[in-house]
Amino acid sequence: MNKKVVIGMSGGVDSSVAAYLLKKQGYDVIGITMKLTPDDTFYTEKEGGCCSLSAVEDARRVAYRLEIPFYVMNFTEVFKEKVIDYFVDEYLEGRTPNPCVACNKYIKFDALLKKAQTLGADYVATGHYCRITKENGRFAVVKSEDPKKDQTYMMYNMTQYQLEHTLMPCGDYKKEQIREIAKEIGLNVFDKKDSEEICFIPDNNHGGFIKRQCPKKIKQGNFVDEKGNILGKHKGIVYYTIGQRKGLGLSAGKRVFVTDIRPSKNEVVVGAEENIFGTELVTKDNNFIPFDKLEAPMEVEAKIRYNAKLFKAVITPTEDGKVKVKFEEKQRAITKGQSVVFYKGDLLVGGGVIE
Fold first, then answer.
1. Which of 169, 166, 125 is nearest to 31 (CA)?
2. With a cut of 70, which residues of the chain have pLDDT below it?
3. What 3-state DSSP class applies to 206?
4. How many CA atoms lie less than 13 Å away from 339 in the CB half-sphere?
5. Which pTM value belongs to this model?
6. Rounded to whole angstroms, how far apart are CA atoms 55 and 232?
7. Which of 14, 17, 116, 250 could form a disulfide bond with 6, CB atoms 3.0-4.6 angstroms apart?
8. Which among 50, 51, 170, 199 is annotated as catalytic?
9. Is beta strand 70-74 parallel, antiparallel or unpaired with respect to 221-224?
10. Bridge partner list, 352
11. Which helix (H) or strand (E) element contains residue 39?
12. Which strands form 267-271's sheet, in the order they lie side by side?
């Protein structure tokens, strides 16, 4: 009897080809598009959003072409709680969250996996560019064949159980190969543009989104320098992030950057660019994949956001269960709420949230 796998289908080329590859490998494949946002968003998002009506229809057509069952399933409640509410709350606290990391942790590899198992599936699958291997009795996450598309940064929260029950077939291919396969087998999504915006904020205006969610909590406050001198008015702390220069609407007579956000005082601190560089940070909510817990200092390569470069660093456990990260070189705009992720060569070691 063939193993059964449920694959999350976004209507894009990656998950579409992943479904094809899994079927070709002999799995019984079920396609599922997750309805993540309320009806008013679900049916009015701009073309190409990962749970827009057009995306659902693209996924449905691919499933029909591949002759696999296809369903749309409602995950709006858990998505609102674990991703949208988290996203809003973090910005209100002066942090800059990564909603895709939260979505992978709580939705794709938790809620979807549990749903898949109720359908009798052995695995859940996605179109992510990652490779899952097994070394020394433990599952590991390894960078994909395509370094430009590698998505292992988003996977640092995965548990051994989740890795055991997850398949990511695109990790063995380059993006160009995935598009070519889609074209060869007649999938209309072969040249579909990749979605880059936050799925629940199709206009890419996160400040406006948060203001619509909780208008009474967004208030004007002061731009101040690092000595506390008032320089002007800001429109609400949720509109700003560490390292930001553009869009401040501030005439300071020189280039200034956001160096800190103080939610307790509703202040945005600005200063010279040199003030946004640092070499040390502390992380919370850490997870490690090759081992359960960091027991001693370890040399790694690390990056402080998804699109950042890797730099040499030493990670050290602290007495309160957190991790201290010290980079060899200064990092620009270390930002509270973002994830820092650790590697040893191509091996994903783990990561945590910058505190």
1. 125
2. 39-53
3. helix
4. 22
5. 0.93
6. 43
7. 116
8. 199
9. unpaired
10. 340
11. helix 39-42
12. 230-234, 221-224, 267-271, 257-262
The one-letter amino acid code at 192 reads: K
Asked if residue 79 lies in contact with residue 103, where contact means CB atoms within 8 angstroms, the answer is yes
Amino acid of residue 344: K
| Single-letter residue type at 273 | E
Q: Catalytic site residue 50? A: no
pLDDT number for residue 300: 98
Which residue, among 37, 68, 40, has the nearest Cα to 50 in the 3D structure?
A: 37
| Contact (CB, 8 A) for 22 and 29 | yes
pLDDT of residue 52: 55
User: Among residues 50, 103, 130, 170, which one is catalytic?
Assistant: 103
Around 300, how many Cα atoms within 13 Å sit in the side-chain half-sphere? 25
Q: Which amino acid is at 34?
A: M
pLDDT score of 178: 98
199 is catalytic: yes
Contact 261, 234 (CB under 8 A): no
